[in-house]
Amino acid sequence: MLLRCLLLIAIAAGLLSAADSKDIHRTFPLDSRGHVTIDTYKGSIRVSTWDWNEIDVAVRIEEDGDVFAQSIKRADVRFDASPSDVRITSDTQSTFFLVDGVPPLYHYTIKMPRTASLRIKDYKSESEVSDLAGELQVQTYKGSLQLRNHAGGLVVSTYKGEIHADFAAVTASSRIETYKGMVDLRMPRDSRFDLHTDLGHNASLDSDFARYLVASNSRGGPELRLKSYKGEFRLRAH
Question: Distance between CA atoms of 182 and 103, rounded to whole angstroms?
Fold first, then answer.
């Protein structure tokens, strides 16, 4: 009984105590047409753009808050940088999940050139990307993406993530594939694109553009490819 009480007290103390955290900040030169890759597991990613040939990366690493949270002492971020290519990787340096505990959260705040391209490889982070004119590629299992004022191509692969994308203009081909996620795309009403769909019986597409499309689903612009087994697509005009 005494051992059980002590265990409950220790658990309660762990839950009430503030989680440990540490901050990392790095800046690198990056060409306006360069490439950025972020490889992470969970947490958040906030990306905004500017007109400087430079990338600024701020990261806060926090304990998950779980009773069995992994210490952040071994957590780090690995940078592989050149003027044309910057790769950023969350590194917990763990060897075995069940032994080491629950991995920490990585919270990224990044500023990068507006016309550079970005790739996000993730498991379940919350991502926000604003004012990007280069291509965005996102691979996530069940993370979310909020895309604002986008003017480049978009390539997304997700199992059950939630995608909200607001396009300033449709200027490049896009491809979105989800097994059972929800995808909401908002584009200017006068957008021109060739729509190609591969939808399973349980998937759905609700489009404001349906009345403008001819039988071939073509409006003489970049390709927009949508594929899903039982996900939900919404195309909205603004």
Answer: 27
